[in-house]
Amino acid sequence: MKIMNIWKELKTPFLILAPMEGVTDIAFRQVVAKAGRPDLFFTEFTNVSSYASEKGRENALMRLEIAPSDAPIIAQIWGKDPEHFAKCAGALESLGFSGVDLNFGCPDKNVNKTGGGAAMIKTPELAIECYKNAKKSTNLPVSIKTRLGWAKTEEYRNWLATLLREHPAALTVHLRTKKEMSKVPAHYELIPGIVKLRDEISPETKLIINGDIKNRSHALELHAKYPEVDGFMIGRGVFQNPYCFTDHTPTREELMELLYLHLDLYKSAKYEPLKHYYKIYVNNFPGASELRAKLMETHSIEEAREVLAQNKLFVLK
User: Fold this and answer.
1) pTM check: above 0.85
2) Whole-number Cα distances in Å, 64 to 96, 212, 263, 277
């Protein structure tokens, strides 16, 4: 059965919400879709070894749950076992995904200790074996997200060339090294060199740039300067404005409406992670800091609703 290659269907320049651990779950993606969805969503990353085990599969499938408003959406997976990559990738088509993305760039120290994420940069042969196992096991297009290198920016020449020789459907490059984390500005000055590599080795691979991209207008400015780049991925910019894919400046009422939607959609048994989102909605208006402080003291969605009602910032329908 022939599967549509979503990467060939997207109009350049396309915009993507970056996969962010503990952020871009099914509830938050629906909130962003309400505000103004990107051209493509990614899931949070899922451990292939968890999926491959009976004990961990239920949790893995929870992370891979998608909503109708998510489509088209790419499943991002990570790990270090080639056979587990094959097993997980092989199941994703039936779950409704439009593609598979391999996470070779996560800088989290716990992920890296296991040999996954950005640690793949130090084991390129293993990375390629994982890619090949994923690709042979699915009809979906397989892409890769990574960083410039482990410690030095110049590592990108060999590392990205190694990946491009496998002709992935798309390659997303976070313009920092693992060691740099997000402590320095993204290295936009390296985009021409990366474009040149892509054009020489795998011109059919879609090239996506990630790092410090604030919103749609910023992405279009970068595309005007670097027209060979196919897409742009926005990560932390969504914390500044959940409407970042439309450039709309929301009113206080619109932000509160999104917050209530998020409260309605949030299904996790753990409440604490939800607090990380409050700064997105309760920000940049008189009294926002005081209200956010009160919300951070709550212990349940019900308590959060009470605090909001008491402050009369938004009337529940």
Assistant:
1) yes
2) 10, 26, 20, 20
Is residue 12 in some structural domain?
yes
Catalytic residue among 88, 106, 130, 244: 106
Q: How many domains does the chain have?
A: 2
Angle among Cα 175, 180, 183 to the nearest 5 degrees reads 95
Q: How far apart are the C-alpha atoms of 119 and 126, rounded to whole Å?
A: 10
Q: Is 106 an active-site residue? A: yes
Instruction: Tell which of 206, 240, 274 closes a domain.
Output: 240
Q: Which residue has the tokens 């212990």?
A: 299
Residues 225, 114 share a domain? yes
The pairing of beta strand 41-47 with beta strand 206-210? unpaired
Dihedral, CA atoms, 287, 289, 290, 294, nearest 10 degrees? 130
Q: Which residue blocks in 114-215 are alpha helix, DSSP H?
A: 124-136, 156-164, 191-201
| Whole-number average pLDDT of the chain | 94
How far apart are the C-alpha atoms of 186 and 65, rounded to whole Å? 31
Q: What is the pLDDT of residues 120-172, one digit of tens each?
A: 999 999 999 999 999 999 999 999 999 999 999 999 999 999 999 999 999 99
Q: What's the chain's Rg over C-alpha atoms?
A: 20
Are 226 and 257 members of one domain? no
Instruction: Return the sign of the alpha-carbon dihedral for residues 174, 175, 179, 185.
Output: negative
Which residues, at least 6 apart from 51, have a Cβ–Cβ distance to it below 8 Å?
A: 57, 60, 61, 77, 84, 87, 88, 91
227-267: pLDDT as tens digits: 999 999 999 999 999 999 998 999 999 999 999 999 999 98
Angle formed by the axes of helices 252-265 and 26-36, nearest 10°: 150
Answer whether residue 246 is part of any domain: no
Domain of 285 in residue numbering reads as 252-311
